[in-house]
Each structure stands twice: as structure tokens, then as C-alpha cells.
Specification:
With 188 residues, this protein is α/β, with parallel strands linked by helices. It has one domain. The chain is built from 6 helices and 8 strands, in the order H-E-E-H-E-H-E-H-E-H-E-E-E-H. Helix 1 packs across helix 2.
């Protein structure tokens, strides 16, 4: 899809406003928070295409059956076997390292359901690939999407996760289904 078409669909047809700052790095991780519905992917895909970029998203392998599989791959989706645990993480890192350009969209919650323990995979991927982490978010109330700002990873996984959750808790991020948003206990 051409950038102008994606921007028209997202901004004119659906009424979204976008942060149109380009991503300069060839490899990065864009956190997409909150992830409360499948429509988040469509909004994010159109946003990235409007910016002239192709997002790479990790999608559970069960979605890659015909006829959806070839379409998802064309849209930049990468099948992940979530039952493999660390194997899925290793596969993602291999994808990162095997490509010249890779802009991975990851939901820190790891699911569309409400959780209080977020996934730390983005931290591991960033550490092992040197990728910049952006604190992207959806604001469904105001129909705004942004790649956010780069987050300086410190190497202290627990402190970094707490800082990311605090940022999101006090940000304008809002989900299409706000009842599905969860944070770790003690995040204020």
C-alpha cells in the first residue's frame, strides 16, 4: 500500500491524527500500548505505511494458515510459535539480525487481555540486537497514534520495566477497550 493511500485511510476515512516523525534507525522496537483489540494492528499498519515504512509484527503462527498466511507475510507479519517460550524469542532475534531493516512492533503486555505482568522480551531483544526501543502508544479517545520517544535502556530489567509502565500509566495512551489495560501492582 502506498503511503498516501494509507494516510488517507487512517486520517481522512478513520479520523486519526498521526505523529509523522520518521524513524531514522534501520532497526528498532516500537512498543504498541495498550493492545486491547485486533484493530490496533490495522491502525498501526496504516500508520507505519503512511510514514513510508513496513512494520514487522510478531503474530502467533496459528494465524498463518491459508488464505490469511500469505497476506500476513506480505504485510510484514512474522509467525511466532508462542508455545516454544525462549525459542520464540530466539526466532525473533534471528529475524532481527538477518535483515537490513527491521522495525518490530511489540505489545509489552503480550496479549489483548488484561495482565499485570508484562512480557520482558522487548528488553532482551533490544539488549541482544542493539535496537532502539520507542515508547509508542495509541490514544483511542482522541484517535492519535505515535511512535513515541526513544527509551534509554539501563540494563536493569526490573527498573526499566517499572519505568516503562510508569510512563504509560501517566501518558495519554488509551485503549479501544480500556477495561483490558493492566499494570503491575505498585505502579503509580
Amino acid at each position: 500500500m502506498r503511503p498516501a493511500t494509507a494516510k488517507f485511510l487512517l486520517c481522512k476515512v478513520w479520523g486519526w491524527k498521526i505523529d509523522n516523525r520518521p524513524i531514522e534507525e534501520p532497526k528498532c522496537i516500537i512498543l504498541g500500548f495498550p493492545h486491547t483489540c485486533i484493530a490496533d494492528y490495522i491502525v498501526f499498519y496504516l500508520y507505519m505505511r503512511a510514514m513510508g515504512d513496513t512494520p514487522n509484527v510478531m503474530v502467533k503462527k496459528e494465524f498463518f494458515k491459508w488464505p490469511l498466511g500469505p497476506i500476513l507475510k506480505k504485510l510484514g507479519a512474522i509467525p511466532v510459535d508462542r508455545s516454544r517460550g525462549a525459542g520464540a524469542l530466539k526466532h525473533t532475534i534471528e529475524e532481527f539480525n538477518g535483515r537490513e531493516r527491521f522495525h518490530a512492533a511489540l505489545a509489552p503486555e503480550g496479549t489483548r487481555s488484561k495482565v499485570t505482568k508484562w512480557k520482558s522480551g522487548f528488553q532482551i531483544i533490544a539488549r541482544l540486537t542493539g535496537a532502539t526501543v520507542y515508547l509508542g502508544y495509541y490514544d483511542w479517545k482522541n484517535k492519535y497514534i505515535t511512535r513515541g520517544e526513544p527509551f534509554p535502556m539501563t540494563g536493569d530489567a526490573a527498573a526499566d520495566m517499572l519505568a516503562v509502565q510508569k510512563f504509560y500509566k501517566h501518558s495519554p495512551a488509551s485503549g479501544k477497550h480500556p477495561e483490558k489495560i493492566g499494570f503491575s501492582p505498585g505502579v503509580d
